[in-house]
Design a protein that fits this description.
five-stranded mixed sheet, alpha/beta, 2 domains, 331 residues, Peroxisomal Thiolase, Chain A, domain 1, single chain, binds coenzyme A
């Protein structure tokens, strides 16, 4: 039975840097509040005309440079995003065209902040089933265009940001080599409206109306509920995946949690009893880029040589839906 190996990664963010002081000039907030409550110091937001496909293409180009592969080596694209450039079709197929891939399957996976963990689990299922050998996974979001940058929207405007990460995975047949050891995926749709964007939507006639502009087209979040569930579900899910894999938390070389909020990551770390060197955080520089946070962080870890073949690694995420999950793998 083939196993999945991560061959290489890349990431890209918009050039425009938005600091906490920049936000304080737009709304009633402060660098001190944002730093204390979220750990974020700056994030990247697109400028008008910059697309999700631009960000994804730059991230994928870097992943190709790292792996020595190119578009003709890829058998399928799984594109995790909740903010595709257009209502339809999705960004996966737009990327296929933009980068000159063959006529391979390319589709969007919409699992918000859990998009990368879901995509990696799906790639593993494709590889283990023998359906595809080399898969490109992209996590990419443009959240800044759905943020209310007045004081009214300050709870989410200070958190969310834009970016893209790309990960190339490939099948191999070496026993005891790299492999996904366990996955643990969940969802609970009764909380869908705790973190959501109401409009535009296909239920409305027409889909986009003047009264949608404003609150209903902005990302709405019940921060306290999200915080409460995230800090329970993420450790629970990592523990379930570790138990399936037969590994103790202490044996992990690295946990890369979804970068929702530094306080959430710190609580997850504490609940799992992990040391500081076992958990990677970069939210301070990027904010919360939804499906892109884990692949961006993974790319930084690879480029700074934090991982070696054989290391045990876990990813965990929680977000809108609510959807959450974890993956444990041997690097
Ligand atoms: N700047 C200054 N004050 C702010 C603010 C901001 N950006 N955002 C909210 N506040 C205010 C609130 O209005 C509230 O004021 P009040 O007490 O006068 O009503 C006060 O700060 C405390 O708000 P509260 O919601 O209790 O703060 P909090 O400590 O829970 O922090 C979040 C708010 C959003 C940072 C926090 O709930 C959180 O991180 N939630 C999870 C968010 C997340 O990770 N989302 C993505 C999931 S994938």
């Amino acid at each position: 039975m083939p196993s999945l190996r991560i061959l290489g990664t890349g990431h890209a963010v918009p050039d425009r840097v938005v600091t906490n002081d920049d936000l304080a000039a737009m709304m009633d907030t402060s660098d001190e509040w944002i730093t204390q409550r979220t750990g974020i110091k700056q994030r990247h937001w697109v400028t008008e005309g910059e697309t999700g496909i631009d960000l994804a293409s730059a991230a994928v180009t870097r992943a190709f440079e790292m792996t020595g592969l190119g578009p003709t080596d890829i058998d399928a694209i799984i594109y995790a995003t909740s903010t595709s450039d257009h209502f339809a079709p999705g960004n996966g197929i737009l990327l296929q065209d933009a980068m000159g891939f063959d006529a391979i399957p390319a589709f969007d996976l919409r699992a918000q902040c859990s998009g990368f963990v879901y995509s990696l689990s799906m790639a593993d299922a494709f590889i283990v089933a023998g359906m595809f050998r080399t898969i490109l996974i992209v996590g990419q979001e443009i959240q800044s265009t759905s943020l209310d940058t007045t004081t009214e929207g300050r709870d989410s405007a200070v958190i969310f940001a834009d970016g893209a990460g790309a990960v190339i995975v490939q099948a191999h047949d070496e026993p005891s080599g790299s492999a996904i050891l366990a996955t643990d995926l969940h969802g609970d749709g009764q909380h869908a409206r705790e973190l959501w964007v109401d409009a535009p939507g296909a239920i409305y006639h027409p889909r986009m109306r003047a009264d949608h502009i404003g609150a209903r087209s902005f990302l709405q979040m019940n921060g306290r509920e999200v915080f409460r569930h995230a800090t329970t579900r993420m450790p629970e899910s990592v523990e379930a995946a570790l138990a399936k894999a037969g590994i103790a938390a202490g044996d992990l070389k690295l946990l890369i949690p979804h970068q929702a909020n530094l306080r959430i990551s710190e609580l997850v770390q504490r609940r799992l009893g992990l040391r500081d060197d076992q958990v990677y955080n970069n939210i301070e520089r990027f904010g919360n880029t939804t499906a892109a946070t884990i692949p961006i962080a993974l790319d930084e870890c690879l480029r700074t040589k934090r991982l070696a073949r054989g290391d045990l690694v876990a990813f965990t995420a929680f977000g809108a839906g609510f959807l959450w999950g974890s993956v444990v793998l041997r690097w």
